Amino acid sequence: KDPAIFPDPFRFDPDRFLARSYSIEEFAPFGLDRKRCIGGDLVLAMSARFVDRVARDYDWEITGDGPPLRSVYHWQPSPQFTLRATRRT
C-alpha cells in the first residue's frame, strides 16, 4: 500500500501491473518466506487462466466503490464495490 510504489494504492487499477513488474519486496500478495501461502503458485496459475478467459469475453465497468476495509489478515474491497460485466457479442 506504499504510495511511492503504487500511486493512489486504494484505487482499483489493474492496468498498473501492465507498465512494469514488481519485485517481491514491492508486491507479495501471498506473503513471504515461512509465512508464504503453500497454494500461492497454484492460485496464480489458475487465476491467470480465469482472468484471461473472462477478459476476452466480457467488458467491465465499476458501478460502485467506497473506502477499502482492513480485514483480520488483509485489505479487502469496500462492501459498496460493484462491477458490471457485459458479455461481448
Give the helices and strands, then pairings.
Blueprint: H1 16-19, H2 40-57, E1 58-64, E2 69-70, E3 75-76, E4 82-87
Antiparallel strand pairs: 1-4, 2-3
- Low-pLDDT parts are none
Q: How would you state the average pLDDT, rounded?
A: 85
Radius of gyration: 15 Å
Largest sheet: 2 strands, antiparallel
The secondary structure category is alpha+beta
Main sheet: which strands, in order across? Answer: 1-4
Helical segment count: 2
Give the termini separation: 37 Å
Order of helices and strands: HHEEEE
Beta-strand residue fraction:
15-25%
Number of strands: 4
Global outline: globular
What is the helix fraction of residues, given as a range? 10-25%
Please provide a written account of the structure:
- The chain has 89 residues and is α+β, with helices and mostly antiparallel strands.
- It has helices at residues 16-19, 40-57, and strands at residues 58-64, 69-70, 75-76, 82-87.
- The model has no long low-confidence stretch (mean pLDDT 85).
